[in-house]
Amino acid sequence: MSQATCPQCHAPYTPGQRFCPNCGKQISSTGEGVIPTVAASNSSLPPTMAANSNEGLPPTMAAGSNPNLPPVGNSNPNLPPTMAAEDPANHQQPYSQYASGAYTPPPPPSYNGYPGGTPTPNDPYAPPPPPGPGMYSMPPIPPKKKNSLPWIIGAVVVVLVLAVCGGSLYGITQLFPKKSTDNKTQTTTDNNNNGDNSNDTATKSVTLTNLAISYATDQITFTSIEQADQFPDDTYTKTYSYEKKSNFVRIHMKEKQEGGRSAYFSYSSAFSLILPDKTTIKALNASEFSGPKEGEQRENWVDFETKKPVDLNSLVLRLGTAEEAQMEFPLKSNADLSEYLPKQADLNKAFNYGPMKWTLNTAIQRYDAPGSQAKKGKVFVIVSLTASNPSSSDFWGYDYIRLKSGDTTAAPEYTSDDDDLNDLSAGASNVKGTLIFQVPPSDTYTLVFASGKNLSGTNVTFSIK
């Protein structure tokens, strides 16, 4: 005899049951054979643990044999046993119909609607199941048609940008024209180029010969002049504007410090260039920072900014600051610099100073002394003396000689070499010394020897022509 099963979940049930013990589906409308769940005959056990008098029913549907206990199940016979309410008095939950192990739940139904059979649960690429009865499936969405209009607009924008950039690049190349490599340096002399080069942008140079002068005992020999819109070894001459607005003149020279002392002058302060229109400009830069050291020989250049090309044969150089004795001369070969050259007088003039015999050997007038330039309105006068002391007494003197020029009387400069002349011991002979004075220039000068104890003063007048 086959066992009856639920038409919905196929779970077995006992004939006469009204509801399926597994899914709760109503099986019979009469409810025959349904035995109410009652408490177990053992009153000491809770109602939910009462023994089941019907072996075929789950524990939750067992009828209670103890009449003193209320039924555990729902008193409403129309509800399935699995929906029995909790006993409010004992707060006990009914046992599940699976707790008794009366039957084994059937396996889940097979979904034969999948193409090719039941898919593997772990297969991520399995197609979705087809819709079941009463279910609605969305129709497939057709692919969206691509719009080519944005691509056309983008292409037009790219073409316009390229056109604008191309025009800009052309404009920039016109603003910064490439320099021609055909502009070669033009070398001339001061005898064959007397024209105005103000409209000529080509680099030009002028060679100088026999042009030398001494500034702060720095013997300077000028060798050439050149001009250009910039010089690669001088960053001060580089321009960064759209149009060329500057021109620079460079003076090349050789230097030798002959004064026995270092010169610490600044080229930007001591060098000035006078242009043909009488404009005066200071030096912009120099290859060397300051004047040469004692005994140093070197080559050097000094740059000036002239704004526009100038006639290199019409330039005048001024040496010296505003506080110094300045020297101006044309930058030309064989220029007349006699006004600024040292003047020397060989005197060999003998005289007595007390018991001592002296000789004024030479006197030199010049604009500079060792390492320095004379102050404005003055010159250096350098005298060479020889002294002998034939007496039996030692002579000791200090700061006892002066030089008078007009109304000015000056003491020797600290650079004088007169230590031996300050201490003439008895019997000393041919003691030499050099005194340096800074005074206004004059036709005649007077050496003044001061008087002292048992010593009469004396004056020696001389001229330097």
Automatic annotation (TrEMBL):
Biased composition (Low complexity): 111-120, 183-202
TM annotation in the entry: 151-172
Zinc-ribbon domain mapped to chain residues: 6-26
Record carries keyword 4Fe-4S: no
Composition bias type Polar residues, residue spans: 45-55, 63-77
Short name of any one Pfam family annotated for the protein: DUF4352
Location of the DUF4352 domain: 347-457
Keywords, ordered alphabetically: Membrane, Signal, Transmembrane, Transmembrane helix
Pro residues bias (residue ranges): 121-131
Name used for this protein in its record: Uncharacterized protein
Record organism: Thermosporothrix sp. COM3
